[in-house]
Specification:
- The complex is a heterodimer of chains A (about 725) and B (about 325).
- Helices cover about 25% and strands about 30% of the residues of chain A.
- Chain A is an alpha+beta fold and about 725 residues long.
- In chain A, a hairpin with a 4-residue loop joins strand 25 and strand 26.
- Chain A is elongated and about 130 Å long.
- With about 325 residues, chain B is of the alpha/beta class.
- Helix content of chain B is about 40%, strand content about 20%.
- The two termini of chain B are about 30 Å apart.
- Classes of the chains: A alpha+beta (about 725), B alpha/beta (about 325).
- The interface between A and B is medium-sized, with 25 and 39 residues.
Chain lengths: ~725, ~325
């Protein structure tokens, strides 16, 4: 039993093939039944002959049957993918204490191998480990690690049966797992629990879940020094082809206008392959396209579609043949006709105060104040900054803000990670502290480091702004006269700066060489740092018409056309902008991708627009906004797609993951009571080859016995 | 009816009727008889007879030909004393004489169920199958040999009786020496259906009680039924001065199990069953059968009786021919 308890099956449903064992048994029984009765003169000698044989020889047909059945059973067992579990996993909780299982429920665990998904196998593994806990002496809880990790029981419980019931009801999410938050939650649960404490992470080992784009490990959680950490990796190393929504251009589409839908297809953990893409517009197939996918770097293709004249919003989906991970085999786009581009202004000053920079920036972005404006600016206080309030904005302008919180920095980081753009004006407020906070969270983010502000000298003209080395490339709609007009603005509080990073673009500069506006790509996003501000106390730039052109160009050009529009992923808060008649309060209903009403949606109203916010969207697909008074008529929609990082099936080695867990837990030396099993081996060391080997030995043994007995006859 | 007329009569019937026509013709036909006519069946021991025959008889004091002297023992008839020898040697001797006499031969056939064995491919009881596709049974082999011996003996004016053992002596035909008697014997042999057990010891004892004179007892059996008891009964028969010939009839598939045969083997007499795969037990069965045959041979040798093993695969008359020739040679 101990041996059995140490072996887990990765594809247990294949055990259904054990019915094949009945074939040799049935053949044996049929053969017995087919034997006829022979009337023989005397069976005395037959009995003597039979008695003279060894018992082993007399039972030889049973031996042969047993060997045959064993061979068949082992071959079936090999298909069930048995794996050897580490001894430590069997002893988890055997001496009591508290164990928290962190169950990876990210979208990648929805991969279906054979008849089960990776998540089901991991869930089964957690269930078996809970079953082996010392009931009565042990406490446990399970954290389901999605974008927002949650503990099944809320705290460590000794009611392990109830915990197992809760576990069985869990399903894999469509989100990207926040493993750091899950481990932090585990640490909180274990903080005041009886020792020993133990964290067992059951994961598919997906690299992108454990390492960021820079190869750095997790941070933001801490565990007690005496807390043991184990990792069980149940990987799915099979190849995967994933689609990623790359964008739509132009973003503001008019009825009857053609637009380019760009999709990126990538092939992970496998050789280059071909894919057939099926493009649907509003549920109707439009075209089929074949593309070659060279590998992990992927291939991007643009599909031209003409937006129909009817309807406010349109949905586009692109699908390729289903593979093991079906969630990334389809991407969705939402096109809201005539939609203005939302822009968020983060500022703590009064946007209606003509002495504030936000007053001028908002008017520069929306000079008409009606539907003719290309951009719809929305002012958000730094204290209210989070991913939800950023909503669907492509570009975020940061003006005069007080000291921003860590969550605000995280929101900005997430915005950049999702392909958005940030334009940061060096105005007032806690500029240095805020930029330092950004640098801590996102090292090497700043294109240059602004220093102290020069004090303006009364009666003395300030430094004039001139085009930078990349000015014309970035500000494509600027001509020489526009630059001249921009140079007429008086810049009162220019800051001394460090040298510009070599990989940053210098868009604007001062005539003394001081950086004016520099841009650099950071991950998928773009960060622009302006050494000026539209606030009147910093100069008169905000009052110049050229600033309108500059603000419009920055809002449109920081993020290239078509990028950053499909960066909504499950687990995020989706903000859907609604323009036009706002109707009565609460006159909006949000229909989720699963077709159910979202009762938790909220609306943020502005003068002539509204943003409907849906927290924690769960599913991939189209989220639609309908007027409650006109059900079935969609006035706006948003597309939610799987985080493309979840498509990457590459997984960490057990050693790497073990070291990562030890190193990532801040301020402690986390024990690794045992490391995890080798990834890519499924749940522990694979035993299928042992099963096949033993089956072959059984067959050879049968053959040898037949030869031996035939010779003895 | 003389033998020649008997043969002619059989031939005439055989021309018009098939094998299953005349009783006993399946056992002994004209060709067989003509083939056997040249053989001579001689006895090794002296036998008692009342008519003139070709066999030596120990009838002391009434012989026509002197044989030997024997020391006088109390109880001997004083008339047999040879006074001339007494005068010369001063010792009392009696004279022993020998004369040729006819021989009474009893043919005892095992008529048990085990003798009905035709082979493993034979249908189970109650299932019909063409007999032509099967070999003959051990009983038919024994009956055929008995018929041949009876023909040889009657042709030489010896008396032949017949017994068939089935649960003891089931059938008995008193001694006779005519061809008509031979016809009756053949009919009896042909009519018998092997069944039950033979209980040969009881049958032998019954025969010994019925026979007033010493003679030749020919037992035709597979000896699978109470072998020890059979030889005990034979020992008693030989102790009474009878000569015994043991014809052991076995089926070819008893001597060597058929290839590939497997199934549930049912004992023909006891009904016991054993599940056997012939390929599995062939070699060990052959060893057991060889040991059994050797044991029978040893017991026959110890009793001084002839044993004639014959299989259904053999040319039965060739076997008989060889035996009689060898027997005649030993007598001379």
């Amino acid at each position: 039993m101990v041996m059995l308890a140490s072996i887990s099956l990765l594809a247990p449903l294949m055990l259904g093939g054990m019915v094949l064992v009945g074939l040799p048994i049935a053949a044996h029984l049929l053969n017995r039944k087919a034997r006829r009765a022979v009337v023989f003169p005397s069976i005395r000698l037959l009995r003597e002959a039979s008695a003279s044989q060894s018992r082993f020889f007399r039972l030889r047909r049973w031996w042969l049957l047993a060997l045959r059945a064993l061979a068949v059973a082992l071959l079936v067992l090999a298909f069930a993918e048995p794996a050897w579990r580490s001894a430590s996993a069997d002893t988890i909780g055997s001496a009591g204490g508290t164990t928290v299982f962190v169950l990876d429920a990210s979208a990648s665990t929805r991969r279906a191998d054979a008849a089960t998904t990776t998540f089901e196998r991991m869930r089964g593994e957690v269930g078996r480990m809970i079953e082996r806990l010392d009931a009565g002496a042990s406490q446990a809880d399970v954290i389901v690690a999605g974008a927002h990790p949650r503990a099944l029981a809320g705290r460590a419980t000794s009611n392990l049966d109830a915990l197992r019931v809760l576990l069985q009801e869990t399903t894999a999410t469509e989100e990207r797992a926040d493993m750091a938050a899950a481990l932090a939650l585990a640490g909180q649960i274990l903080a005041d629990q009886p020792r020993p404490t133990h964290i067992v992470v059951v994961t598919d080992g997906q690299t992108s879940n454990w390492l960021d784009e820079h190869g750095s490990g997790l941070n933001g959680f801490s565990l007690a020094d005496d807390c043991a950490v184990d990792a069980v990796v149940i990987a799915s190393p099979d190849a995967n082809v994933g689609l990623e929504a790359a964008g739509i251009a132009p973003q503001m589409v008019l009825p009857g206008q053609p637009c380019a839908v760009r999709v990126r297809a990538r092939a992970f953990a496998g050789a280059s392959t071909a894919a057939v893409l099926r493009i649907e517009l509003n549920g109707r197939e439009q075209s089929v396209r074949s593309i070659e996918i060279p590998g992990e770097e992927g291939a991007e293709t643009a599909i031209m579609l003409t937006i129909p004249n009817e309807g406010f919003t349109h949905s586009i989906s692109i699908t390729h043949a289903r593979d093991a991970l079906s969630l990334d085999d389809r991407v969705f786009f939402s096109v809201n006709v005539g939609e203005s581009i939302p822009v968020v202004l983060i500022a703590d000053d009064d946007p209606d105060d003509p002495a504030s920079g936000t007053f001028y920036l908002a008017r520069a972005l929306a000079p008409f104040g009606d539907a003719r404006d290309r951009f719809v600016p929305r002012v958000v206080a730094s204290s209210a900054l989070n991913l939800a309030t950023l909503g669907a904005a492509r570009v975020v302008f940061v003006g005069d803000v007080t000291r921003i919180s860590e969550s605000a920095v995280a929101a900005l980081k997430g915005h950049l990670a999702s392909g958005g753009g940030i334009v940061w004006f060096c105005g007032g407020g806690a500029l240095s502290e805020n930029l330092a906070a950004l640098e801590r969270s996102m090292p090497d983010l700043l294109p240059f480091v602004p220093g102290a502000a020069r004090q303006p000298v009364a009666g003395r003209p300030g430094t004039r702004i001139v085009p930078g080395a990349s000015g014309t490339a970035m500000l494509t709609s600027f001509d020489a006269s526009t630059f001249v007009a921009l140079g007429q603005a008086w810049m009162g509080r220019v800051r001394d700066c460090s040298r510009i990073r070599s990989d940053a673009l210098q868009v604007l500069a001062y005539d003394d060489g001081t950086p004016g506006l520099s841009v650099r790509r950071y991950g998928d996003g773009t960060f622009a740092l302006a050494n000026f501000s539209p606030a009147p106390r910093n100069g008169d730039l905000g009052r110049h018409a050229a600033f309108v052109a500059l603000a419009q160009n920055l809002a449109a050009g920081v993020v290239p056309e078509g990028e950053g529009v499909a960066a909504l992923h499950p687990g995020a808060t989706v903000a859907i902008a609604v323009r036009g008649d706002m109707g009565a309060a609460g006159d909006f209903t949000v229909i989720g991708a699963d077709g159910r009403k979202r009762l938790d949606a909220s609306i943020i109203r502005d003068r002539n627009s509204a943003v409907v916010t849906v927290p924690n969207v769960e599913h991939v697909g189209i989220y639609r906004v309908e007027r409650t008074s006109r059900p079935g008529v969609t006035v706006a929609s948003a597309a939610v797609n799987m985080d493309p990082r979840e498509s990457d099936t590459r997984s960490l080695s057990s050693e790497t993951l073990g070291a990562l867990l030890r190193a990532s837990s801040a301020g402690r030396a986390a024990k690794q009571s045992s490391t995890a099993m080798r990834p890519n081996d499924g749940d522990g060391a694979p035993l299928w080859w042992v099963a096949i080997l033993v089956a072959m030995v059984a067959m050879v043994g049968e053959f040898a016995l037949l030869l031996r007995w035939n010779a003895d006859r | 009816m003389n033998p020649t007329a008997f043969l002619h009569r059989l031939r005439d019937r055989g021309e018009t009727e098939r094998d299953d026509g005349p009783p006993g013709q399946r056992l002994l036909n004209v060709g067989d008889m003509q083939r056997l006519r040249h053989l001579e069946f001689s006895t090794r021991r002296r036998v008692r007879g009342t008519y003139l025959g070709r066999h030596s008889s120990r009838q002391r004091g009434q012989s026509v030909e002197f044989n030997e002297y024997r020391q006088y023992l109390p109880g001997d008839d004083p008339a047999d004393l040879d006074w001339k020898v007494f005068a010369r040697t001063d010792r009392l001797y009696v004279r022993l004489y020998e004369h040729e006499s006819e021989m009474t031969t009893t043919l005892l056939i095992d008529g048990s169920a085990s003798m009905a064995f035709r082979g493993c491919e034979a249908p189970a009881p109650g299932v019909t199958q063409s007999s032509s596709s099967l070999s003959y049974s051990k009983y038919e082999l024994a009956a055929s040999l008995a018929a041949a011996l009876a023909f040889l003996l009657i042709e030489r004016n010896d008396r032949v009786s017949l017994g068939i053992a089935r649960n003891g002596l089931a059938t008995f035909e008193a001694p006779g020496m005519s061809m008509t008697h031979l016809s009756r014997l053949l009919a009896k042999l042909d009519a018998h259906q092997p069944a039950l057990t033979a209980q040969l010891p009881e049958a032998i004892e019954t025969l010994l009680l019925r026979s007033r004179r010493r003679g030749l007892l020919v037992i035709l059996s597979d000896l699978l039924d109470d072998t020890e008891g059979i030889f005990a009964a034979i020992a008693r028969a030989t102790a009474r001065g009878n000569e015994v010939i043991l014809v052991q009839t076995l089926h070819a598939e008893e001597l060597e199990l058929p290839a590939g045969g497997h199934g549930i083997f049912v004992d023909s007499e006891s009904g016991e069953r054993v599940r056997v795969h012939c390929d599995d037990v062939r070699s060990s069965y052959a060893r057991a059968m060889q040991a059994f045959l050797e044991r029978v041979a040893r017991m026959c040798a110890s009793l001084g009786i002839d044993r004639v093993p014959v299989s259904t695969a053999d040319d039965r008359f060739a076997v008989l021919e060889r035996y009689l020739l060898r027997r005649g040679a030993e007598r001379r």
